[in-house]
Amino acid sequence: MTLLYILIGIIVVPLLLLAIPIHIEYCYDHQVRLKSQMRIIWLFGLVRIRPTPSERSKGTAARFTDSRVKEKRKLHKRSRQKSKLGKALLAVISSEGLLRHLFRLLYELLSDAKIKQLKACVRFGLDDPADTGRLYGSLAPAFSILYAIPRVDFVAVPLFDRTGVETDIQARVRVVPIYYIKAVLLFVFTKESLQAARAVIRVYSS
């Protein structure tokens, strides 16, 4: 009988904890020194978490000696990272059916959340402007799902003059974790998601 109570506790207690709402406030600005700031309130205000904000990378002169060789190596490394990011994005959008599943998941997550404020602006550019246009063209129809969600102000902008991803986000939402378990598991274990994950791994391992 004791073992039964223990098993019930192992199952019921996590479910009860997942049913408690979480209030999340998040701000991300790619231009400032403290890029991201977050505050999480849980257990009806008894638990308050404020993760350490991430800072922008400081200048080369602040961390390294004034060496042209080191600076060139750092710039080359950043260029390779951006190039791999672009290839990874193309690999993801090339996975047939993945974008449909991804935006359906995002729609379900945002629809079940109580959104008090959500503004997001995403700018992205790849090495080749043609690839940037192709990526934007592939994503544009799916963005309509985000545009249709009430209280969501979302903008996507292609960058043809530089590479990288620039994001600005302001969000205040209330979520109940237990609502999302099924949707997340169904997305993670789809054939399309697994194929995309393998494609990204191949890009970064090459």
Describe this protein's structure.
With 206 residues, the chain is of the alpha+beta class. It contains seven helices and six strands, in the order αβββαααβαββαα. Strands 3-2-1-6-4-5 form a six-stranded mixed β-sheet, covered by helices on one side. Helix 3 (68-94) runs antiparallel to helix 7 and helix 4 (98-112) runs parallel beside helix 5 (129-147). Mean pLDDT is 77; it is low at 56-66.
Highlighted features:
206 residues, alpha+beta, 7 helices, 51% helix
Secondary structure blueprint with pairings:
Layout: H1 2-18, E1 22-29, E2 36-42, E3 47-49, H2 60-63, H3 68-94, H4 98-112, E4 114-125, H5 129-147, E5 152-158, E6 164-175, H6 181-188, H7 191-205
Parallel strand pairs: 4-5
Antiparallel strand pairs: 1-2, 1-6, 2-3, 4-6
Helix pairs in contact: 3-7, 4-5
Structure summary:
This protein starts with a helix and ends with a helix. Helices cover 51% and strands 24% of the residues.
